[in-house]
């Protein structure tokens, strides 16, 4: 049942044009553009090449796009059209409704990572082999954290409000949440706060793993904390209609 439900949810996401634009086309465009153009400030890059610096952050953006924004919007409109109410009347238990969406999000993130990784490799990306295991764990934790936040948002508000708010949060986290601008490039107080956001923790953790070959425990704990808190709140606030 879990496999079937997850396969349906993943297929619906992958064949939805707007979802595909958000989850794959925009991250690909940013990856290629920022790797080829002289846009990134040299103070952020240091001795790291542009593609090596930007790829971990684009992978974090892909997780944000699919697990949070896409998940929240899809859930909001599923509630509006009565999809969840009808599914709850089937043999699917309530925990499996959520688990199927989480597994589908993990599948989508895995596909995103493969596509983005292949394109980055053609652009000259050379990740640290020592950090690949940590990067995979970060992607899983990031998907769980952003997925829980997506369910929290999409399960509590009206579909129109979810659509607007999810896109606003996406833009804010992209520009000021530690993805395109490293926390070190921000004022010290702001940078410290950004590192505690799931976007900042995931982007910095991916950079530490794939560029420095490290095992970033701090960002992992931040993501696990967000996943736990948002998951508990989502179970209490999510509505079927």
From TrEMBL:
Chief localisation class: membrane
Domain named ABC transmembrane type-2: residues: 18-241
Places the protein is found: Cell membrane; Membrane
Record-annotated membrane-spanning stretches: 20-37, 57-77, 98-123, 129-154, 161-182, 215-235
GO aspect biological process, one term: response to antibiotic
Membrane-protein topology: Multi-pass membrane protein
Keywords from the named record: Antibiotic resistance, Cell membrane, Membrane, Transmembrane, Transmembrane helix, Transport
Molecular function in Gene Ontology: ABC-type transporter activity
Keyword Transmembrane helix recorded: yes
Family per similarity comment: Belongs to the ABC-2 integral membrane protein family.
This protein's name: Transport permease protein
